[in-house]
């Protein structure tokens, strides 16, 4: 079964206490995210790593504090989550080339908003999507529910996600299962 991993917004501004939009305890998922990404590379599974890539005046900042501004430390991914062979896909028309890790830039909450998202999904031709990252009730939710619309199997790795609000995160997971999604844990992926 052709599988693609989706590593959602694991960026410094979300993962560390000093980050601009820190999700409490998010730093604890970094080793699991890194292990999933490197497992994928070892097993020739593409990893799509979504990344907020904001300008100083993005409309999103009307609702959220400034975060992940292009060129800042907060916009970067922790080194342990990066794969050696990676490609950046901006939110603008471009030629797509696949690599072990595809850094998919976005300026809104949803990865699906990237101009190249549909073409990328077509190129990857997956039958199964494995989703993890931050934060559960926002960007992970948008990615997971958007991928469910492909009609393919979508799984959220529950020990590789973190919520801003635990109650909203739990509701997101319940709604995801009710919509046909699956919950798994990293150990099940490695098995």
Task: Explain what the structure shows.
The protein is of the alpha/beta class and 191 residues long. It has one domain: 3-Layer(aba) Sandwich (Rossmann fold). The chain is 29% helix and 22% strand. It has a 7-stranded parallel sheet with strand order 3-4-2-1-5-6-7, sandwiched between helices. α4 packs parallel to α5. The radius of gyration is 15 Å and the shape is globular. It starts with a strand and ends with a helix.
Principal-axis shape equals globular
Sequence of secondary-structure elements: EHHEEEHEHEHEH
Q: Which CATH class?
A: Alpha Beta
How many helical elements? 6
What distance separates the N and C termini?
15 Å
CATH topology: Rossmann fold
Helix-and-strand structural type: alpha/beta
Number of strands: 7
CATH superfamily: Isochorismatase-like
> Beta-strand percentage?
15-25%
Topology record:
Blueprint: E1 3-8, H1 12-15, H2 30-42, E2 47-52, E3 86-89, E4 101-106, H3 117-124, E5 128-134, H4 136-148, E6 153-162, H5 166-178, E7 182-184, H6 186-190
Parallel strand pairs: 1-2, 1-5, 2-4, 3-4, 5-6, 6-7
Helix pairs in contact: 4-5
């Amino acid at each position: 079964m052709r599988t693609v991993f989706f590593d959602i917004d694991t960026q410094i501004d979300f993962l560390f206490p000093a980050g601009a939009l820190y999700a409490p305890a998010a730093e604890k998922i970094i080793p699991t995210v890194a292990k999933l990404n490197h497992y994928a590379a070892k097993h020739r599974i593409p990893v799509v790593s979504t990344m907020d890539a904001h300008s100083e005046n993005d409309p999103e900042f009307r609702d959220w504090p400034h975060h992940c501004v292009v060129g800042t430390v907060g916009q970067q991914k922790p080194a342990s989550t990066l794969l050696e062979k990676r490609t950046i896909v901006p939110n603008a028309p471009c030629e797509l080339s696949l690599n072990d890790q595809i850094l998919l830039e976005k300026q809104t909450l949803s990865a699906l908003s990237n101009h190249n998202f549909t073409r990328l999904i077509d190129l990857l031709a997956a039958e199964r999507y494995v989703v993890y990252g931050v934060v559960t009730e926002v960007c992970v939710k948008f990615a997971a529910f958007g991928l469910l619309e492909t009609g393919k199997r979508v799984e959220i790795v529950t020990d590789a996600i973190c919520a801003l609000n635990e109650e909203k995160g739990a509701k997101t997971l319940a709604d995801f299962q009710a919509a046909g999604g699956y919950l798994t844990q990293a150990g099940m992926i490695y098995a």
